[in-house]
Fold these 2 entries.
Entry 1:
Amino acid sequence: MNNSYIADYPSVEKRFDGWWQHKDIGRPLMRVIAKGRKGNVVPITIPEDIKDVYLDPRYLADSYRNYCESHYFLADAYPNVSADIGPGSIALYLGGEPKFSPDTVWFEECLDDASLFTKLAYKEDNKWWVLHQKIVLELRELANNDFIVNIPDMMENLDILSAMRGPQQMCYDMIDNPDEVNAGVKIIDGVYFNYYDWFYNHLKEADGIASFTAFNVLGEGRIAKIQCDFSALINPGMFREIVQPSLRKQCQNLKYSIYHLDGPDAIKHLDALMEIEELDALQWTCGAGQPDGACTQWYPIYDKVRSAGKSLWIMIQDGSIEDWAGSTQRLLDKYGDKGMYFLYPEFDDPEQAQKFIDRFNK
């Protein structure tokens, strides 16, 4: 990547590598972005059709370049643009249809019987798969190596089946049709890398570095965020039987992986996740209405993650900048800085942001 919007990108790459490997990098990994850059921000028109907000490579590139021109990427922040067609786009590639909204993309339920799980298959000519490849290639060209185009958030296992079947019906299927569910998960496992490898091979940099969307993680080799948000609706026994083996297999085929643990209802599966030796890190999402990731009520989660030798991704956003600093320091006092990644809201000016970063340099 060029140094158009970041001063020392190779150092950021090295620090991310240290974070994945739980090494000392001289401070915690920190995503710090500040407003105030006086770059060349150009007028752009928001597409009249909401779907083009997600599907028009020119709009995606121009709007993100404007963001880069008006912001500073500091510490371990790096410019990266999303090319998602909603979270869980494998559901589209396997036959689903999208519902576009200003905030996200949902997927229409398209499987009216659990037996159809066993019919799912990779199809090279699926219209959404073909279109997504086209969008990504055009966006990569428009980025001109000034910012990274992320590997999209394709998702996996039960989250894909739930998107196609509907969450309520999936709950019944877990009880009434477990064989079909198991077969469907195995098919998702089998096709996942058909999609992933295409994206990785076309989006990686010359040194093999790639970035995964939404979670701001960077690494050399195949990296991905993995998840099972549907796990909030099932018990630990079902998770261990169906989801854990799927995740383990996925991690075994990735160089670096980070699990997205989504909200208090998913905490019951933490022990099973920590048993996956190949999993490298955990990203904790506190859930709506909950205190941020620095709250001491979440420390039992972090205790287990650290005991398992895995790295942590923590969002700190409650209160003032001084509150962010205090929260960061308390976490460092308890867990040290190896394998710790902190993300913060945007700062109002770069000097303020740099002073914040300097507080945590050894």
Entry 2:
Amino acid sequence: MMRLHHHPLCPFSRKIRLALREKGLSAELVEVEPWKREGEIVELNHAAEVPVLVDEDLVICDSRAIADHLEEAYPDTSLLGSSLEQRAETRRLCGWFDVKFCREVTDLLFGEKLLKRLRRVGTPNSEAMRAGSANIRGHLAYVSHLYQQRRWLAGDDLSLADLTAAAHFSVLDYLGDVPWKDFAPARDWYAKIKSRPSFRPLLMDRIVALRPAAHYDDLDF
């Protein structure tokens, strides 16, 4: 069986957990706190970052490399899409959320409000959090625009783009930092992906001493 070294509220880890389940693959989940730079995670990945997937003799680091590996090694269920157009759009949107959204929103909200607390490296930067709260609204408007044009974000089929976006939004939703009520189409998209069986284990994740927002695991939020 594969092993996935992860942190429960790491969006990149969550993306791979979703991808594994959508592809019908099993993996042992090994929870780690990578910032402590302790144990096997340092041996597997010198950067001491998650996720790390161990598939037999292969050790794959970085969520993009892991996603590529899963597509190549287990192609029966593709998460990129059936057409060249959708596959290109899926890759573009994965980059959008893993780079642009992460820089403009995830790092400024999750990074400041939770990651600093877990790592014990100082107090949250209020200016950064205000910027993240402002930036997320533009991204929600973009998700709403995409979903009004398509059945899923990258096209007619669920894809890695949806899983990547949902992984980032989900950690922010844990903190109650997503203004869903102001962006109904984005909320409808998230409700649809949130109700999938692959998503349910994420809704069970908890961080000690920090309860999630009241609606976090409510499918009818």
